[in-house]
Amino acid sequence: MSGGGGHLPVMLAEVLDTLAPRDGGAYLDGTFGGGGYAGAILGAARCTLFAIDRDPDAIARGAALAARFPGRLHLLEGRFGDMLSLLADQGVAALDGVVLDLGVSSFQLDEPGRGFSFRFNGPLDMRMAKAGKSAQDIVNTLPESELADLLFDLGEERHARRIARAIVAARREEPVATTGRLAEIVRAAAPRDPSGIDGATRSFQALRIAVNDELGEVERGLQAAARLLAPGGRLVAVAFHSLEDRIVKRFMARSAGRGAGASRHDPAALGRRRDDPAAAA
């Protein structure tokens, strides 16, 4: 999660040390968010920075930072997976470094009206770009079996079938339209997690990833970044959960000419199965 004004970017020192921005260089922050990484990069060197975010709110917030660094920060609304075309429109064909802070931003999580978090009651939305199919659309239309697959594959939720069954039963009575109601349905359907995390965590993660095609975006973004990097350029990716982690590690291994061995975080490699018979009952 990245940001400024109380929303601190994760691993800022490590990101700057790895990126090593230099005077005269050209860089991309593919996940602008609150501008935490962008401000630090611009403050570390007399460089040019392009910043992408699909969230129009993030682009609007960036105006103040752009004013602090006139002519050096260029804000682009769109998906970082489309960075090749977005930068081509700016006449940019090569970069000295790319930073990707993957996942949802703290600004999105902290705003109830965006519908990303079960911590607040709000519309069941979760759209980063404020356009397209919402989490409410998915929850209320997806067949039960497909919903279970989604929760398991993208949320690593081993009680996926039980939760999907409960959601379908609830939506027959009334469409599931708020984060609060969905969280209640999920918590009631699955046993308390022994780790102590909220029972709705994995289901909300799965829906958010599906709504925004986050894993596909990571794949596209990494491939595009590699094509844009000039000789000696650096790619820095901050991954939060195991699904992103697996994609990034395999991409880095392939790019470095190493075999793409299974990540220790890969549920398939660990032989995990969807609900065991007791959990599915």
Automatic annotation (TrEMBL):
Gene Ontology molecular function: rRNA (cytosine-N4-)-methyltransferase activity
Q: Which SUPFAM superfamilies would you find in this protein's record?
A: Putative methyltransferase TM0872, insert domain, S-adenosyl-L-methionine-dependent methyltransferases
State the InterPro entries in the record.
Answer: RsmH, SAM-dep_MeTrfase_MraW_recog, SAM-dependent_MTases_sf
> What are the recorded Gene Ontology BP terms?
rRNA base methylation
Annotated region described as Disordered, given as residue ranges: 256-281
Q: HAMAP family per the record?
A: 16SrRNA_methyltr_H (MF_01007)
Q: Which family does it belong to?
A: Belongs to the methyltransferase superfamily. RsmH family.
Q: What is this protein's record name?
A: 16S rRNA (Cytosine(1402)-N(4))-methyltransferase
Q: What species is given as this protein's source? A: uncultured Acetobacteraceae bacterium
